[in-house]
Design brief:
The protein has helices at 15-27, 84-96, 105-117, 130-145, 160-163, 174-177, 188-194, 216-227, 246-250, 277-280, 297-312, 315-336, 363-376, 393-416; strands at 51-55, 58-61, 66-69, 123-127, 149-153, 180-182, 199-204, 230-234, 257-260, 271-275, 343-348, 351-356, 379-380, 384-386. The longest helix is centred in the C-terminal third of the chain and has 24 residues, at 393-416. The chain has two domains: 15-69 and 315-416, Aspartate Aminotransferase, domain 1, CATH 3.90.1150; 84-313, Type I PLP-dependent aspartate aminotransferase-like (Major domain) (Aspartate Aminotransferase, domain 2). The strands form three sheets. The protein has a seven-stranded mixed sheet, sandwiched between helices. The chain has a four-stranded mixed sheet with strand order 1-2-3-13. The chain is of the alpha/beta class. The termini are far apart. A hairpin with a 2-residue loop joins strand 11 (343-348) and strand 12. Bound molecules: pyridoxal-5'-phosphate (PLP). Pyridoxal-5'-phosphate binds next to helix 4. It comes from Mucilaginibacter pineti.
């Protein structure tokens, strides 16, 4: 779809968004179902709060304003909004029904397809959310190893075993909190030192924005194998994006278990757990993990259609190429404008992130200013380039033009020493992710 968004000097009219929000505050607690979509991540007073429509790479807010979207619905939109091949599959299934009283053949079809594309998929389990499959993986790993402790790195959903180690852990019993530990990404020596015979599973996102050091993931697999600990890859972001078979394919390494959601169904709610047959066999016996909507057929149909499309259209390669244009284009602009000491775009091409250096000032103020100015130019920007197959070269060209404009404003603001005075709305909140204050398990701790 051609980009029709024009550079403009107007902030969007967000009257309807604000009215909806006022109603929400009276009745919803919390107001958002996904923290990353909530008002803390989009500057109040400037950014829209509600989206009502999407087509391709563009979205429309409740007031009718159009934006290029680089959030991909926080991951799920891998092909594009209202993508015909997926929506047709959903419509066809809708004619026959949504959820049934027996198993559905699409469950078998999807599992066979996943087995073809995901390297460690000796067996496949289907569920609904990322947290579902992360927790199922942890439970089955505990049952298989007869151990309780878990090492993790990254974000793994809202369930007790993980959220207990974050700052937002009210309601999680201390006994549960005491079973999970974090480790520092890329620090194989620290992991080796801390692993012992009490650790059931080590779960991590194979990468977030920092690349693994050469051999890190392979060493991790080896260290886990030697220690009798199961290695779990949380591939919510990497799966079906960096390669069809996710990080396992991309880095040529196998995890004992791997979990997927987001990109695999272009927006429909479904999650997958893949892994070793001997471990997964426990789901047939002593480990309980079932849910009413697990076999909901619209999502199964969407997932099959999405994976086939990702495969046929070589989407991971496309995301890599298009994402590189944006990431490298941003960094070249920063260099050309003498801004590279203040800002850089980092990460993998399929999912990169704009960062600010400490010399630039308060990163949340700077991010807020950049968001404000990008939104003014019709780009729904939250700091990330979550690429999808529908982003066109016109979208990329336009976005780089906008960055050129906006970086000039950011430069002025930094040099003025008063970024805050440039802000029209409220300062953003920090993204909720466990990337600091690690509680690494000391080797000697008798826990
Ligand atoms: C890496 C990772 N793991 C797990 C989850 C949890 O997935 P969900 O929100 O679908 O439960 C997320 C969600 O953002 C995630 O990014």
């Amino acid at each position: 779809m051609a980009n029709k968004i024009q550079l403009t000097n107007n902030f969007p009219d967000i009257t309807q968004s604000n009215e909806l929000y006022e109603r929400a505050l009276k009745v919803q607690k919390p107001v958002t179902q996904t923290l990353a979509k909530g008002p803390g991540q989009f500057t109040k007073g400037v950014a829209p709060k509600y989206l009502v429509k999407g087509k391709g790479s563009h979205v429309w807010d409740a007031d009718g304003n159009e934006y290029i979207d680089f959030n991909a619905a926080i991951g799920p939109v891998s092909l594009g909004y209202a993508y015909p091949a997926v929506d047709d599959a959903i419509r066809r299934q809708l004619e026959d029904g949504i959820t049934f009283s027996l198993m559905h053949p699409l469950e078998v079809e999807l599992a066979e397809l996943v087995q073809q594309v995901v390297p460690n998929a000796e067996a496949v389990k289907i569920a609904k959310t990322g947290a579902d499959v992360c927790s199922a993986a942890i439970r089955v790993a505990r049952a298989f190893t007869g151990r309780d402790k878990v090492f993790c790195c990254g974000y793994h959903g809202w369930h007790d075993w993980y959220i207990g180690i974050t700052s937002r852990n009210a309601g999680v019993p201390q006994a549960t909190q005491d079973l999970t530990y974090t480790f520092e990404y890329n620090d194989i020596d620290a992991i080796k030192a801390a692993l012992d015979e009490t650790v059931a599973a080590l779960i991590l996102e194979p990468f977030i924005f920092e690349a693994p050091k050469p051999g890190f993931l392979q060493q991790l697999a080896e260290v886990c194998r030697e220690n009798g600990t199961l290695l779990i890859f949380d591939e919510m972001w990497t799966g079906f994006r960096v390669a069809l078979g996710g990080a396992q394919e991309y880095f040529n390494v196998k995890a004992d278990l791997a979990v997927f959601s987001k990109a695999c169904a272009n927006g429909m709610p479904i999650a997958l757990l893949t892994g070793r047959a001997d471990v997964m066999e426990l789901f047939n016996s002593e480990v309980f993990s079932y849910t009413t909507f697990g076999g909901e057929a619209l999502s199964l149909a969407a997932c099959i259609a999405t994976i086939n499309e990702l495969k046929d259209k070589k989407v991971p390669e496309y995301l890599d190429q298009n994402g590189a244009l944006l990431k490298d284009g941003y960094n070249q602009l920063a260099i050309a404008m003498g801004m590279d000491q203040y800002t850089r775009c980092i990460g993998f091409n399929c999912r990169s992130m704009v960062t600010f250096t400490p010399e630039a000032g308060n990163p949340l103020e700077l991010k807020t200013l950049m968001q404000q100015e990008m939104i003014k130019r019709g780009i729904l920007w939250a700091g990330f380039h979550n690429m999808c197959y529908s982003h066109t070269s016109e979208d990329i060209d336009y976005t780089l033009l906008a960055y050129q404009d906006v970086l000039q404003i950011i430069k002025e603001a930094i040099l003025s020493g008063d970024v805050k005075s440039y802000l029209k709305g409220e300062i953003l909140e920090a993204v909720f992710r466990k990337v600091s204050n690690y509680n690494i398990k000391p080797k000697s701790a008798a826990l």
